[in-house]
Amino acid sequence: MKKVFIIAEAGVNHNGYIELAKKLIDAAVDAGADAVKFQTFKAEKLVSKNAQKADYQKQTTDSSESQFDMLKKLELDLATHHELIAYCNEKKIMFLSTPFDHDSIELLDDIGLEIFKIPSGEITNLPYLRHIGKLGKQVILSTGMADMGEIEDALDVLTEAGTKKENITVLHANTMYPTPMEDVNLRAMLTIGNTFDVAYGYSDHTLGIEVDIAAVAMGACCIEKHFTLDKTMEGPDHKASLEPDELKAMIKSIRNIELALGSSVKKPSKILFT
Questions:
Q1: Which domains does the chain carry?
Q2: Residue 248: which residues within 8 A CB-CB, separation 6 or more?
């Protein structure tokens, strides 16, 4: 069985501070993640100046602040990207970042990103998909708000633009933060994989780790999970993220499940005598 690719999603939990971002990288390394992922965007290209925050964001940030002003403080500039990539290379973990606009796609391509993660909110943004598709890179596609027709359209756009289907992994997801268990619908992950004959995985926004473990037992080849150093920190995503010990427990459990799944051949276990 191919090793499950585990993405520790730092996102914007760095709160705009590069030293906090490095501590998140350290935590991802210590937990055993394969990659640590941030977010690349320009607030001006992402939201309007008077866009309101989502309800879950208001709970852990200044509720009077606009979505734009919050995001503006969470941008990472080019120099910071270079510094974080160098730090990831030093720590031997893959750096990833999700681009949210065309300039950010170009920035990440220019600095050599080999895997492009497409967030759920951009799955119907066809020019965005074409831009990434023509790069011919590995693509991880989240599908939080999409139905099967929209997933099919996205895959068509990516492949017609130049990305090979075998280089695409589709992640089942739910965009409720946090996701209630009754809304997870994990079997939909299998529907996606079987319908489109594509590699599949799960991007998780539940508060625990058990759904991620179940997803791996059901054949997920990629798991993405938000994490933070402290759930009580101010910021939009900390509350729905794992703390370092939880991330470590999740990854240890996933690696154990990988071993336990075995080869599918029914045979007696080896007995070792001393």
A1: 5-261 (3.20.20.70)
A2: 30, 31, 32
